[in-house]
Give the backbone structure.
Amino acid sequence: MSSYNATFFLSPQTQVRGDNSVHPVLYIEPDGRYGAGYIVLQMPSELTQEERVEIAERFLEGVTKWRDGIVGHAEQQRTAVDELASAHAEIARLKAEAGEES
């Protein structure tokens, strides 16, 4: 087993695809399909089908948690923006009422 650390920045064009050949492969293409660089994650042929499924399940669990965290953060930001817009509208309404009373 090789041990590497690398950072890749993902873009809206990022593609992820898999191939279930003799050596199941997961391709991650940060700049889009057939971009200049890509990451290849491959399972060795000596793994059993059960081990392969177990590995794929771990990937799925990790990516799902990552996605759920991103979605949660986006929802928090949307809520904050909505609350701020509501507060601005209420301030404008109160100023308009105050102006009418003068």
